[in-house]
Specification:
Helix 4 packs across helix 5. About 40% of the residues are buried. The protein has one domain: Vaccinia Virus protein VP39 (Rossmann fold), CATH 3.40.50.150. It contains nine helices and eleven strands. Helices cover about 45% and strands about 20% of the residues. Strands 3-2-1-7-9-11-10 form a seven-stranded mixed beta sheet. It has a two-stranded antiparallel sheet with strand order 4-5. Strands 6-8 form a two-stranded parallel sheet.
């Protein structure tokens, strides 16, 4: 829930992490720590909770990064994937995805609303030779009653086996009632003729999640089951049988 509330203020949160990298000494130390954990993840048979805790500490910004429980479930779903993966919102999860994609020969697309943060994440991936993730700057736009990433110029695959829905961060000043939170992933992809086989929705305890899940069911025939964790619920959303 802490992250769900923090999502309303993405700029200050991301600036906190970016600023840590501006000091040359801090940057070298942080770069080294991050590369060391990535090396450990590459060498490990599986990315377990201790490694997840380590990568969150190395990345920094732990109070606003994806919860360890969400990353654990993300890892579980990614390793069983056979097709393309889409990530909505970038950060420490993007690094984990980069390692998993490398290990399991997968391709990942990551959408990010903030241009500076996109550059920040891309530089971290390149510094560690994580090339299986494509991070695209996709500014937010108001659509038919919701706000979501502008993907009209992106060349995306025709289907995604897994969508990791941890974004976008939408503030109320957009002027759309509730901004329909993360609803836009399905109408925006459907409009492009892109098939979605599974969504892993973070922050499913968030008050707006119930309406979102109901609309996905009513308008797109998607059903869900909840994964209950101490850090908040996660929804696994799939087409109805």
């Amino acid at each position: 829930m802490r992250r769900a509330l923090a999502a309303l203020l993405p700029k200050p949160v991301k600036s906190f992490v970016r600023n840590r990298w501006l000091n040359p000494i801090q940057r070298r130390v942080a770069d080294y720590r991050l590369s060391q954990v990535i090396h450990q993840m590459r060498a490990a048979d599986r990315i377990d909770r201790p490694l997840i805790d380590s990568i969150r500490r190395a990345w920094g910004n732990e109070g606003f990064s994806a919860d360890a429980a969400y990353i654990e479930h993300m890892v579980e779903h990614v390793v069983s994937c056979k097709g393309q993966i889409l990530e909505c919102g970038s950060g420490v999860t993007t690094v984990v995805l980069g390692v998993l994609a490398e290990k399991h020969n997968l391709s990942v697309w990551s959408l990010e609303q903030d241009a500076e943060w996109t550059d920040f994440v891309v530089r971290r991936l390149r510094a560690n030779n994580l090339s299986a993730v494509r991070v695209a700057h996709a500014p937010l736009q108001v659509r038919n009653g919701y706000v979501w990433y502008d993907i009209k110029l992106l060349e995306l695959p025709l289907s995604f086996d897994l969508v990791l829905c941890d974004g976008p961060a939408v503030a109320e000043h957009w002027g759309v009632p509730g901004a329909q939170w993360r609803f836009g992933v399905l109408p925006s992809l459907s409009e492009r003729g892109i098939l979605v086989r599974k969504i892993l929705l973070d922050d499913a305890t968030e008050p707006r999640a119930a309406n979102l899940l109901r609309r996905w069911n009513d308008e797109f025939g998607m059903v869900h089951r909840m994964l209950n964790t101490k850090e908040g619920d996660i929804a696994v959303v799939t087409p109805a049988a």
